[in-house]
Amino acid sequence: MLEIRNLHVEIDGKKILNGLDLVIRPGEVAAIMGPNGSGKSTLSYVIAGKEDYEITEGDILLNGQSILEMEANERAAAGIFLAFQYPLEIPGVATMTFLKAAMNAQRKARGESELSPGDFMKAVRGAAEKLGINPDMLKRPLNVGFSGGEKKRMEILQMSLLDPAYCILDETDSGLDIDALRIVAEGVNALRGAGRGMLVITHYQRLLDHIVPDVVHIMAKGRIVKSGGKELALELEKNGYADYVEAA
Amino acid sequence: MPAVKETVETVKTIDVDQYKYGFVTDIESELAPKGLNEDIVRYISAKKDEPQWLLDWRLEAFRRWQTMVEPTWSRCHYPAIDFQDLHYYAAPKKTPGPKSLDEVDPELLRTYAKLGIPLREQEVLAGVEPQNRVAVDAVFDSVSVVTTFKAELAKAGVIFCSISEAVKEHPELVRKYLGTVVPTTDNFYATLNSAVFSDGSFVYIPPGVKCPMELSTYFRINESKTGQFERTLIIADAGSYVSYLEGCTAPKRDENQLHAAVVELIALDDAEIKYSTVQNWYPGDSEGRGGIYNFVTKRGDCRGARSKISWTQVETGSAITWKYPSCILRGDGSSGEFYSIAISNGYQQVDSGTKMIHLGKNTTSKILAKGIAAGRSDNTYRGQVSAHRKATGARNFTNCDSLLIGDQCGAHTIPYIEAKNSSAVFEHEATTSKIAEDQLFYCMQRGLDEEEAVALIVNGFVKEVLQQLPMEFAVEAQKLIAISLEGSVG
Ligand SMILES: Nc1ncnc2c1ncn2[C@@H]1O[C@H](COP(=O)(O)OP(=O)(O)OP(=O)(O)O)[C@@H](O)[C@H]1O
Ligand SMILES: [Mg+2]
Questions:
Q1: CATH number assigned to the domain with residue range A2-247, chosen from the 4 options 3.90.1150.10, 3.50.50.60, 3.90.190.20, 3.40.50.300
Q2: Using the beta-carbon criterion (under 8 Å), do B460 and A49 form an inter-chain contact?
Q3: ipTM
Q4: Which residues have any ligand 1 atom within 6 Å of their CB?
Q5: Which end of chain A is more exposed for a tag (fewer CB within 10 A), N or C?
Q6: Which residues on adjacent β-strands are paired with residue B293?
């Protein structure tokens, strides 16, 4: 279980998260929706362990243990994965090289042996094919010159290879064309279940048509202001955030 | 891919502040008395049993040097060097000159083994595929102690020996070419070197011969309070090819040590010389104490038509690096290349770059320089590209990129571009970037620890240059880069 308790977060003296409570259970797909600037990406960074933030109050627990003292790479090895809203470019580092370094780093942290080159290639080829990623692309430096949609697919490729326990997807649907949206959603759905928790951040119902959430949370001004079933997203689509923002 | 993994592994296994080659070999040396005067010049020349012409050449340089002042235009800052407080000659007592392997002091062989340089031909023959074999000239303080595979090279007509030996065995070649690329009057340090140079390598590749193996020289400074002044001369005769690699290390000492080398390359018609350096002199400690002052003049003369000289350097060591490997593109259609990775960490200061002097018609040059600054270091690229009036159709492409790690270091790019004819085409690109926190976080989110992340990003940054190095050295260089950046984050 991934549990966020009364989280207060500041950056450069500016308060961004304001007593946020949220629970993601194993096997559950939770969606978060909320207006621009409400703190969704900040929440995802803080869970993943980005350093710039000051946590003034509250805690984040993974299976009952606080992870606040853990480095980002330790959290990754513990099973937390973040698909970035804006994936970063790593010039000169072939995507393949990056994937291998990441997979082996996590295996090592967990005390597992390194993948053999054969197993690695097989895993990557298989996952790339499912996501419609051309193998030639894996030779190019990671994300350099990739289109917006290609970057997002590459995030999901990494997610499926790293086999995380909790996935956070920050606006993975933005920048995807209609076919890509379906392919990526299928990729995500294939990873559902097996005790894997997911937090899907999105602005649009159309993603939730493909990835049907178990619960929907509405975030405003740095807090969860309402939680409900999948119908909550439909209601938002109709009425907007105004009522919730006022209430927050 | 495996090399990246190794870099990552190396970063993990090495302690912060650990210069791997900092040990001292306990060996008895014969030292010249401290100080510099005509008698010392005569002493060095006598030690080497040199002919009169060379002694005269040295003395003329020395007299000239006395009238010169140390240049101060570089961005390196250091206290004045006391040139009288140094030994200008140091040789291991038991091996005061080139010997056959059986005669070399075993302590010296152990030293080179510890540095990862195998000198026993049998071992190399047993363990290494023929195409990967490397002949080594091992220079210890002021003398060459052994040169391997000489006999095998001689079969191809290749001369590979110490310069002292070449003076004796091939005086006509040495006399014909020595000082013709870097004249004794060239600059303060080159003139000093001309007066007191002790040893270094000599290579001659006859017409039409492709040198059958990689050649290399490994320089080791061991004695304290001693300057090393090596002199290397490489001649590739018409239509020949040679690839040469130079490596260097020194013990950790609290004092600064002076190293002032001169390297001259001459490529005749259609010849090609590929010169690679992995420079790893002791850089000083984390407080900036000690380290080598490295003042080097390296220049290649593309004397023949369609000749080609290519410099590749990986500079990670030295407290101060002052070095501009250059090409004089004299022959029509000749070409010069300069590929450089210069890394500075701690309190290191680097002022390095190249000169491409286009004199012949349709000459081309390419410069690819990558500077990486970390810690409190200062890293300058200084490059000159010029085209003479007669150098019609000259072309240059320059790309220099700097990467900053942390916010207490500096990177600077100082290009000088001068075209005296309108048909010259010079292109220049330069970028400076910082390893973004966001990039590091992204890598760490995927499971890499901070040092693995830095190593990966840096390897990506220098990849194009590493690809220029011979394969085995590329792997070495990659490890070295990781070690040099040890402790640069966090
Ligand atoms: N480094 C920073 N310094 C100051 N303010 C910041 C910083 N980073 C984020 N913020 C502010 O924090 C607030 C929340 O930003 P965040 O990116 O978490 O919003 P979001 O909900 O993900 O928005 P969007 O839907 O547009 O992606 C915004 O007002 C943003 O400007
Ligand atoms: Mg966002």
A1: 3.40.50.300
A2: no
A3: 0.96
A4: A 11-12, 14, 16, 34, 36-42, 85
A5: N
A6: B258, B320
